[in-house]
Design brief:
By secondary structure, the protein is of the alpha/beta class. It is built from 14 helices and 9 strands. It folds into 2 domains: 197 residues, Alpha-Beta Barrel (TIM Barrel), CATH 3.20.20.370; 92 residues, no CATH class.
């Protein structure tokens, strides 16, 4: 067990937003909320207040959404509204001014143009072979260890880890962008209409704020290795993020989360200078030494717990391996809960069962820490 009291979410899928690695459906989010226990999940503003007052109890949980994604607004928000919940939303701000942030664009490319993620990885290596120094670059893979690299993220496969090692450790941002940009030039696709489906708009961020959700910093352009940047570059990232969100919200942001869990002592000093009240890591196992290092559990780990719990409770699983859902008229497909990226999973709509007390009795509950 560990002490994470915050849940972290990124991508969601439905008939409009494509499925892909790590994406979950509205039904899976409902199942996670029921599994944790609705009564344990605090409104984001209350969780923030209790954290500042040091009155959080071990059973208190909050929900958080990183990257300011449109799929979160379209798919997760209605589920939160159904349960009467609010969350933290961590937004990188360059996209609010119409910028196209490459990492999300590249992700859209790989989940829509390839049947399986491993097909993309194979094609990506083929692109690397076209580089003039490809042999020297790939030689550096001898330093890669699947057992130790990104070990804090057990949901990553060996191929996932190897790709991220090549991207972040061997190539670095500039060379990675060059490889991907050259590759995407061969794909006829208009970016701007897709961009409108990828990120939140200014109006949507303002609407979330008006509904009681807490909007926080996530840098301006979402560097994957913030800790490797010079202090002045880090400061520019967070000051621009801070000022842009303050202009949108008409109030100063008080919270943040570290992009890709990357930060150093310079980062923490900058956050203090901006009077940020608290920050979140993307790791449940971090040893919290400051108020900017609250641990978070990735939803993928909780889905795995959910899978194991239902598997043990065989009486709750029928012969077709479907999980009994909140609503007796509808069931969550077992594979869609455990494999959000499965393209064959049904794209189900959020539940609208009103009798939540009755729902809770029918759902397996988890009373320990997440």
């Amino acid at each position: 067990m560990h002490s994470a009291q915050a849940m972290m979410f990124h991508h969601f899928y439905d008939a409009t937003h494509p499925p892909g690695q790590g994406a979950i459906s509205a039904d899976t989010l409902s199942a996670i909320i029921e599994y944790i226990g609705v009564e344990r999940i605090l409104p984001a503003a209350e969780w923030l207040w209790r954290a500042r007052q040091h009155t959080l109890a071990p059973h208190h949980v909050c929900l958080s959404f990183d990257d300011g994604l449109r799929c979160q607004y379209d798919i997760a928000l209605p589920v939160l509204q159904h349960y009467g919940l609010t969350a933290f939303w961590f937004v990188y701000s360059s996209v609010l001014d119409g910028a196209i942030e490459r990492l999300e664009w590249y992700r859209y490319f790989r989940v829509t143009q390839f049947t399986a993620i491993d097909d993309f990885y194979v094609a990506f290596k083929q692109q690397l072979l076209g580089l003039p120094n490809s042999a020297q670059l790939l030689q550096q893979l001898k330093y890669f260890s699947a057992a130790s690299y990104l070990s804090e993220a057990p949901f990553y496969s060996t191929s996932d880890r190897e790709f991220r090692y090549i991207r972040d450790e061997i190539l670095g941002p500039e060379r990675y962008f060059a490889v991907m940009d050259q590759w995407l030039e061969q794909v006829p696709c208009a970016m701007q209409p897709i961009a409108d489906k990828l990120w939140l708009s200014v109006a949507q961020v303002q609407q979330l704020h008006s509904q009681g959700h807490v909007i926080g910093l996530h840098s301006h352009t979402h560097p994957t290795r913030m800790a490797r940047l010079a202090r002045r570059v880090q400061q520019q990232e967070y000051v621009m993020n801070f000022e842009r969100l303050r202009a949108v919200l008409h109030t100063a942001p008080q919270v943040m989360s570290h992009p890709c869990n990357s930060y150093n002592s310079d980062t923490l000093d900058i956050l203090r200078e901006l009077s940020i009240q608290l920050g979140f890591c993307a790791n449940p196992y971090t040893s919290q030494t400051s108020r900017y290092e609250y641990p978070r559990e990735d939803h993928a780990n909780t889905v795995r717990q959910l899978y194991r719990a239902y598997f043990k409770m065989r009486t709750l699983i029928d012969k077709s391996r479907d999980i009994p859902c909140i609503d007796d008229r509808q069931k969550i497909n077992f594979r869609s809960v455990t494999q959000g990226e499965n393209r064959d999973s049904p794209l189900e709509e959020p539940h609208r069962e009103k009798n939540t007390a009755k729902c809770k009795k029918r759902m397996l509950k988890w009373n320990g820490p997440i």
